[in-house]
Here is the input.
Amino acid sequence: MNNHSSIVLIIGNSRLHWALFIDKTLYSTGDIFHLSASIIQQLAQCPTLDNWLTAISLPNNLPIIPDYPIPLILASVVPSQTALWQSYPHLRLITLEDVPLERMYPTLGIDRALAVWGAGITWGFPTLVIDAGTALTFTGADNHQCFVGGAILPGLGLQFASLGQETGQLPLLKPGLMISLPLHFAMNTSDAIQSGVIYTLLSGIKDFIEAWWRLFPGSQVVMTGGDSNLLKTYLYQQVPDIAERLIVDNYLIFQGIGNIVIR
Ligand SMILES: Nc1ncnc2c1ncn2[C@@H]1O[C@H](COP(=O)(O)OP(=O)(O)O)[C@@H](O)[C@H]1O
Ligand SMILES: CC(C)(COP(=O)(O)O)[C@@H](O)C(=O)NCCC(=O)O
Ligand SMILES: [K+]
Here is the structure.
């Protein structure tokens, strides 16, 4: 008997986040850089699981007989990337209308809606999601499964990149260069950038979490995204009582999509 498998792709501004569902089980996940138009065209012309596994660099030893063409469930916050997938034969594009949250505004990012839905069904409502991706976003939902709003700022990598690219003398730093926090008052340029970016980011995160807990005392706070583990490590050193209550879960969006479309 064929297994009902599907590929889920979340297109973020830095990377693609993919998952393979076999029946209702989240079988494997990963992150890759955006695929080229020609690879996407090849997948659209021959959407076998084998071709998919090659494209997402996963070993080809799955114990299943997959569907053909393998369904693709897509959620994207990058319209130019979404456009490249329109020719895929078995495509389901997820939009805000698919997400059962109340009171979302029409331009809300689908990644934020899915992540807060995934956090609520996994960890309970109310919930605050902090997505530490290209942008860093806060997205809240209350115990009536209503969207409560949020905030958007440049993420860790983007803060370093903007300083490195938009100034004449500052080096381009990457996140993760240091695991322990720098001195606040640094004596060289690289440390000064890291201090400025990291401490203001941590204070901002602390401020938003405390503001959330004033509205929803005891609520879960869940962090996700490419910089989530690093930021949690920093938070532990700066505000351990908050970090201890913070959940890191990098499957939120997949759980949200799985709950909505894979039944
Ligand atoms: N292997 C990696 N390649 C690229 N970025 C990474 C990697 N590991 C962690 N990151 C961090 O992930 C962040 C982007 O997060 P991600 O969740 O991929 O973003 P998006 O969902 O916007 O595509 C960057 O700031 C970067 O520091
Ligand atoms: C805020 C975002 C850029 C975050 O994208 P990401 O960092 O995950 O790539 C994305 O969710 C988006 O384009 N949102 C639309 C605006 C909004 O949510 O209000
Ligand atoms: K993201």
